[in-house]
Design a protein that fits this description.
The complex is a heterodimer of chains A (337) and B (337).
Chain A lengths: L1 E4 L13 H25 L16 H8 L7 E3 L5 H6 L4 H8 L33 H15 L5 E6 L6 H12 L4 E7 L2 E2 L2 E2 L20 E5 L3 H16 L5 E6 L17 H8 L3 H12 L4 H23 L19
Parallel strand pairs in A: 1-7, 2-3, 3-4, 4-8, 7-8
Antiparallel strand pairs in A: 5-6
Helix pairs in contact in A: 1-2, 1-9, 1-10, 2-7, 4-10, 5-6
Chain B lengths: L21 H26 L14 H9 L6 E3 L5 H6 L4 H8 L33 H14 L6 E6 L6 H12 L4 E7 L2 E2 L2 E2 L19 E6 L3 H16 L5 E6 L17 H8 L3 H11 L6 H24 L15
Parallel strand pairs in B: 1-2, 2-3, 3-7, 6-7
Antiparallel strand pairs in B: 4-5
Helix pairs in contact in B: 1-2, 1-9, 1-10, 2-7, 4-10, 5-6
The chains are: A alpha/beta (337), B alpha/beta (337).
């Protein structure tokens, strides 16, 4: 059965973060926004980015509010709008910008661009362009955990469009049969490139599909960081305690085009207006200010900090070399560690 | 010889409001018995080394093929799977065609180039099965899309097993059909075994029909050994499709009484499970139904149908086996359109 959990103010959550955690989550959400704004609205337009740009503007609460529950040895398979996952795993903004600029110190050493990156030093599996392909991969990681008797979990992120893919079905079916310690998070941002959800599936909620795999499904307001924090923790705890996989669907909205080149003219402007009012960062800031966990002065300072971090990252990345041509065949096949 | 039903015996429940005259009721028997006896005859030919390649039996599942195919009308399209010989017979394929095909003779539907039931017959609304299980679903969805786009009062029907439901194509095809509300009927033949994999290792749900909801389509569980129930459910599904209500998924609960193919002794199937389902034989039960409900005056009438079938098969075998193998010169013909 699908549970609904949508209201911040009156909701009673099982898991509520302390003030320090709240500030930490706000910092990461703001940092994601700052990095992505800088990349999409400045560096890309200045021709300083190599290749496409995919941002998760408006969706920052999802990756931050879930990945915060990861333990050191957990493994995550993010999608291309989950920058928060990388930051929370400890990947630095410097290396992310270097990746976007095609530099040698980017995560793929300048071989690939944008969010097509991973690093097993941080237990982040590189995003597979073929959406949904990370589902069987994450299930396989979880199978290894189970076979080895390890108390680790795998986290897997996808958009609602990816749920139309066969790999999504096969991976979740496999994970459900074997009760694997993996959690599937869906960023339901209403558009898969230019395809609205009603042309993507005949159901209102992706989470109803959980019933087809005999696993729990839940629909959550993805723009409410506290709801994300709570639901993410419950889903991950379930997987870690041997309860198997679950699907948590976060309702959100893609506040930009599919990519930086896409003006999203196919999205009715009133939808952008509506979702701008539900912005996860301003909502959270307002709540923190109201409850006194944050002052306006501290908030302004956080904003400056984020800007400085990104200034530093851009400056550093631009001094990094491009990969050397003679390295082109390196890292193609496994050469041992 | 038909023995009277005993109280704990499996009996054919007549669906409420089913309209089917005496001829229709006897035709259902004829096709089920023809299905079974043709397969028995093929079993003998297999042991005589006359069959080229594998032999796939639908023993115990005849009601499912016959009841569903019988519900269709001229102009509808049917995409059978390997265990839907009965559906082919209902659509007008002759036993001679089937035997010639199994024995790779030049008069067979594929002129001896392909085997078993791997053939289509577009004039009879039959699409050739695809070995890669599940792949027919998007194909049949495509046919249903054409029917919808041209406002044809027709439906497409295809089958999937409990195992095939774990495939990519099942998910993608049903999702597409659901989104576009296509007139597609999917018969899920849950015969408990996908080769040697029990359904509990294939899906984490007891009733596969619950997955209908994942695609926004109507789902129903049907007694797959009751030919009248299969006929009735398929007719209702057809009516829904024609009313523009979108695809229907019917789960037929049944059992594969032989191995995956003739070479497989199915030693992995518990003998008590087999014994339990033998008692629910769809043809024996239907014979009892015909006598007890006075559809026939005496069992002798049924014996006469059987005798007629034996004669048909005898002459079909003679015709098929006296036909030549294909001439090598035709090998490149019919390869491209």
């Amino acid at each position: 059965m699908v549970e609904r959990n949508t209201m911040t103010k009156n909701a009673r959550y099982v898991h509520v973060p302390d003030d320090e955690t709240k500030i930490r989550m706000l910092h990461f959400m703001k940092l994601v926004r700052e990095i992505e704004d800088r990349i999409e609205k400045k560096l890309y337009r200045q021709g300083r980015i190599v290749g496409g740009v995919y941002v998760g503007r408006g969706q920052e609460a999802i990756s931050v509010g879930t990945a915060i529950h990861m333990e050191k040895d957990d493994v995550v398979a993010p999608s291309h709008r989950d920058m928060g996952v990388f930051l929370m795993r400890g990947v630095t903004p410097r290396r992310i910008i270097a990746q976007y600029m095609g530099r040698r110190t980017g995560l793929t050493r300048g071989r690939d661009g944008n969010m097509h990156m991973g690093d097993m030093n941080y237990n982040v599996i590189a995003f597979v362009s073929h959406l949904g392909d990370n589902v069987p991969v994450a299930a396989g990681v979880a199978l290894a955990f189970k076979q080895r008797g390890q108390k680790q979990v795998a986290l897997c992120y996808n958009g609602e469009g990816a749920t139309s893919r066969g790999d999504w079905h096969e991976g979740i079916n496999f994970a459900s049969i074997h009760k694997l310690p993996v959690t599937f998070f869906i960023n339901n941002n209403a558009y898969a490139y230019s395809t609205p959800i009603e042309l993507q599936m005949a159901v209102k909620d992706v989470a109803v599909r959980a019933a087809g795999y005999g696993i729990p499904g839940e629909v959550v307001d993805g723009n409410d960081i506290l709801a994300v924090y709570d639901s993410g923790k419950r889903a991950i705890d379930l997987a870690r305690s041997g309860g198997g996989p679950s699907i948590v669907e976060y309702k959100t909205f893609r506040m930009t085009g599919h990519s930086a080149h896409d003006d999203a003219g196919y999205v009715p402007p009133e939808l952008f207006d509506e979702w701008k009012r539900k912005d996860p960062i301003t909502r959270f800031e307002k709540a923190l200010l109201e409850e006194g966990a944050l002052t306006q002065a501290r908030l302004d300072e956080m904003q400056r900090e984020c800007a400085l971090i990104v200034d530093d990252a851009v400056e550093w990345a631009e001094q990094q070399p491009y990969p050397a041509a003679e390295e082109v065949t390196k890292d193609v096949y496994y050469e041992g560690t | 010889m038909v023995k009277p039903s005993t109280s704990d015996q499996y009996t054919i429940a007549v669906p409420e409001g089913l309209e089917l005259d005496r001829t229709g009721r006897l035709e259902l028997y004829y096709f089920m018995a023809l299905n079974r006896k043709l397969e028995e005859r093929l079993g003998l030919l297999y042991r005589q080394n006359k069959v080229v390649g594998g032999l796939y039996s639908s023993l115990g599942q005849e009601a499912c093929s016959v009841g569903t195919a019988y519900a269709l009308e001229r102009g509808d399209f049917l995409g059978p799977m390997i265990r839907n010989l009965g559906s082919l017979l209902v659509r007008g394929v002759r036993p001679t065609d089937v035997m010639a095909q199994y024995c790779a003779r030049a008069i067979g539907p594929t002129r001896g180039k392909d085997l078993n039931v791997h053939f289509g017959w577009v004039e009879r609304g039959l699409i050739a099965p695809i070995s890669v299980v599940g792949a027919l679903i998007p194909v049949m969805a495509g046919i249903a899309l054409e029917m919808k786009m041209h406002s044809k009062k027709q439906v497409a029907l295809t089958y999937i097993g409990d195992g095939g439901m774990s495939t990519t194509d099942f998910h993608e095809g049903m999702n597409f059909a659901g989104v576009h509300k296509l007139p597609l009927i999917l018969i899920v033949e849950n015969n408990l075994w996908a080769y040697s994999t029990h359904v509990s290792k294939q899906a984490n749900v007891v009733d596969l029909a619950v997955r209908a909801e994942s695609y926004g389509c109507y789902g129903e569980i049907v007694d797959g050994n009751n030919v009248l129930a299969m006929l009735d459910a398929t007719r209702r599904a057809r009516a829904r499709c024609l009313a523009g209500e979108g695809p229907v998924m019917l789960e037929a609960k049944t059992f594969r009484r032989k191995g995956h193919a003739e070479h497989d002794d199915a030693g992995y199937v518990p003998s008590e499970q087999r014994a339990e389902w033998e008692k629910k034989d769809p043809i024996d039960a239907y014979r009892r139904f015909l006598v007890e409900r006075r559809v026939v005056d005496s069992a002798q009438e049924i014996d006469e149908i059987d005798a007629k079938i034996v004669a048909i098969l005898e002459s079909a075998a003679n015709e098929a086996l006296s036909a030549p193998f294909p001439d090598p010169s035709i090998v490149t013909e019919n390869v491209y359109g």
